[in-house]
Amino acid sequence: DSGVTQTPKHLITATGQRVTLRCSPRSGDLSVYWYQQSLDQGLQFLIQYYNGEERAKGNILERFSAQQFPDLHSELNLSSLELGDSALYFCASSAFGGSADTQYFGPGTRLTVL
Amino acid sequence: DAKTTQPNSMESNEEEPVHLPCNHSTISGTDYIHWYRQLPSQGPEYVIHGLTSNVNNRMASLAIAEDRKSSTLILHRATLRDAAVYYCILASNTGKLIFGQGTTLQVKP
């Protein structure tokens, strides 16, 4: 158990819909990362937050947005969903968000868009 | 973002050492070398990381070349539970991890 929790575990929805994925970091960790894992693209970094502020951005679509709240939990919002958005979405947390930090990954949310 | 190159797959026998290589010729001076692994149906799991010197922990050892352009993850005695995809990653100053394809390790009993 990494100490990172993600909800829901599974999500099935239709094209065009909007969903919210939630992540609670390990106690004391200030930085949260979101990653997407699909069969054809592998694991891709989406976005990073540190103590409520966006720190780094990866290949995140404009239809996707995220935020980190004062209690440090984070949400990833996916809108106008397409079939290709079906993937595993992982959240990870680390203490300070630096290059020497260990990242602890949650169990993931499996999103299926029909 | 600096890139890493790893073999697609490797095989090992149970209880034998495994050396997983990684090339990162474009590494910058401040990039840390991280290794994560992903077991089937699970999130990635931290294995080890280092900057310049070799590192040991309870899971593995990391040998870093003197010029830092390559590194090797060493599992001292592979077990069946070590079968996974192993990712060698260079972490930049923000800490974001750029995953490559990784090496799929098969461990034979």
Write the topology of this structure.
The complex is a heterodimer of chains A (114) and B (109).
Chain A: E1 5-7, E2 10-13, E3 19-24, E4 31-38, E5 42-50, E6 53-57, E7 64-68, E8 74-78, E9 87-94, E10 104-105, E11 109-113
Parallel strand pairs in A: 2-11
Antiparallel strand pairs in A: 1-3, 3-8, 4-5, 4-9, 5-6, 7-8, 9-10, 9-11
Chain B: E1 9-13, E2 18-23, E3 32-38, E4 45-50, E5 55-56, E6 61-64, E7 70-75, E8 84-91, E9 103-108
Parallel strand pairs in B: 1-9
Antiparallel strand pairs in B: 2-7, 3-4, 3-8, 5-6, 6-7, 8-9
Helix content of chain B: under 10%
Number-wise, the strands of chain B total 9
Q: Largest inter-chain interface?
A: A-B, 28 and 25 residues
Q: Specify the structural class of chain B.
A: mainly beta
User: Which term fits the overall shape of chain B?
Assistant: globular
- Helix-strand topology string of chain A: EEEEEEEEEEE
Elements of chain B, N to C (H/E): EEEEEEEEE
Quaternary organisation of the protein chains: heterodimer
A few lines on this structure:
The complex is a heterodimer of chains A (114) and B (109). By secondary structure, chain A is mostly beta strands.
Structure, explained:
- The complex is a heterodimer of chains A (114) and B (109).
- Helix content of chain A is 0%, strand content 53%.
- Chain A has 114 residues and is an all-beta fold.
- In chain A, the strands form two sheets. In chain A, strands 2, 4, 5, 6, 9, 10 and 11 form a seven-stranded mixed sheet that branches. A four-stranded antiparallel sheet of chain A has the order 1-3-8-7, with no helix packed on it.
- In chain A, strand 5 (42-50) and strand 6 (53-57) form a beta hairpin.
- Chain A starts with a strand and ends with a strand.
- The mean pLDDT of chain A is 95.
- With 109 residues, chain B is an all-beta fold.
- Chain B has strands at 9-13, 18-23, 32-38, 45-50, 55-56, 61-64, 70-75, 84-91, 103-108.
- In chain B, the strands form two sheets. Chain B has a five-stranded mixed sheet, with no helix packed on it. A four-stranded antiparallel sheet of chain B has the order 2-7-6-5, with no helix packed on it.
- Chain B starts with 8 loop residues before the first strand and ends with a strand.
- The mean pLDDT of chain B is 93.
- The chains are: A mainly beta (114), B mainly beta (109).
- Chains A and B meet through strand 4, strand 5, strand 9 and strand 10 of A and strand 3 and strand 4 of B.
